[in-house]
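Colleagues,

For the teaching module next term, I've prepared a clean inverse folding example: a structure given as tokens, and then the sequence designed for it. I'd like students to try predicting residues themselves before seeing the answer, so please don't circulate the second half yet.
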């Protein structure tokens, strides 16, 4: 599908729609559950700012390039504008300086990768699954 199709509302077939299995991260209490889940499979947290053009572009690019089986990693989406206190706690708990956009990968309760801005690459997740 070309850019003009996107701008002028061309219909998209169901084959072209890629469903990304996002889980919303909306509370600090979820972080305990996420740490435990990371023992069984890698956890990915995508911190996104809805006020930032770079964040929006990076998020779209991440989704377009995401191509990992659903059971290999579990994805969490954090709207850091709406849930600032959760974002702050993620930085403290997982010992990563706050950035936006930011991708954090957890395994066994620890941060094993983090990247931000143009360094975020969905293809890197293959290394952790």
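(Answer key — instructors only)
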């Amino acid at each position: 599908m070309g850019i003009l199709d996107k701008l002028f509302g061309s219909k998209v077939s169901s084959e072209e729609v890629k469903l990304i299995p996002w889980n919303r991260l909306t509370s600090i209490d979820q972080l305990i559950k996420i740490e435990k889940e990371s023992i069984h499979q890698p956890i990915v947290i995508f911190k996104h700012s809805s006020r930032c053009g770079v964040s929006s572009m990076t998020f779209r690019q991440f989704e377009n390039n995401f191509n990992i089986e659903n059971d290999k990693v579990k994805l969490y989406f954090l709207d850091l504008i709406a849930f600032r206190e959760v974002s702050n706690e993620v930085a403290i708990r997982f010992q990563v300086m706050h950035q936006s956009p930011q991708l954090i990968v957890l395994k066994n309760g620890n941060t094993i990768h983090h990247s931000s801005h143009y360094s975020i690459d969905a293809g890197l997740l293959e290394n952790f699954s």
